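@channel sequence for tomorrow's demo:
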Amino acid sequence: MASPRVFIDGEAGTTGLQIRERLVGRTDLELLSIAPDRRKDAEARAELLNAADVVILCLPDAAAREAVGLISNPAVKVIDASTAHRTAEGWTFGFPELCKSQRAAIKAAKRVSNPGCYSTGAIALIRPLVQAGLMPADFAVSINAVSGYSGGGKPMIAEFEDQAGPAYTTVPYRLYALGLEHKHVPEIQVRSGLLTRPLFSPAVGRYAQGMLVEVPLHLALMGAGPSLQDVHDVLTRHYRGEAFVEVVSLKACEAMKTLDPEGLNGTNRMKLFVFGSEEGRQARLVAQLDNLGKGASGAAVQNLNLMLGLPEAAGL
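structure tokens (generated this afternoon):
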């Protein structure tokens, strides 16, 4: 029996390259590739898009929509790593740990939208609390986050690495999306089950990859006013048995003094932490992940495995 054929449209980009690295050498898949000089040839792309069993789109939003439009073969399955379809009707959200039914939904899907990197951390922290009734759906949620500069793709990588380039910067840390508009906000709200738009404050640091996503909470303002233990218990129950998501014990959290955004680089893992003050009735929930791993390419491979009926951890 022939191995499933996979085509990465946009394999020369940051996410595409990392997906390819995770797939090269696997004997249970056949990787299709387009000649570099034909990457913008619609006819050549359409041929490969329709010849694959699964297509992974690593493209800007408009190009991702165009690629989907080029697919006429009804048997082709699609994983879109762009923002284009993350809240679109008919697309399954590619976060297997979202809820008990999500893994089965991804397995059965023809169209899967990969979550954003920030969204993965934020949704992982918020969704279980809303689902359990611990956080009211209309709660005013704030999210603070920092990512390595690889999250901005080739233009931002050049800013931090190309010393001869016109945009080169030596800034150690900077805020952005100051107008409170960011492409991940709609999916965070929809997939977390929030009725109120969250306030999202992202930043980028002078390091290549890795991220921290933080949700600070006034526990006394959350419904019945849960304790740190209540919050930790909900997260622990939600992710029990998951291979790629770990809820760190409260005892370990209490002993920690700092947290490194690069701590899970090169993996498809995510760790969730519950810090805070029981006396002060405040909490800091933090997700640690690799923005190019569980936040992008690792998640795409995880979804690919599920859609093809292969071991979920293959290549990860």
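heads up for whoever presents: The mean pLDDT is 94.
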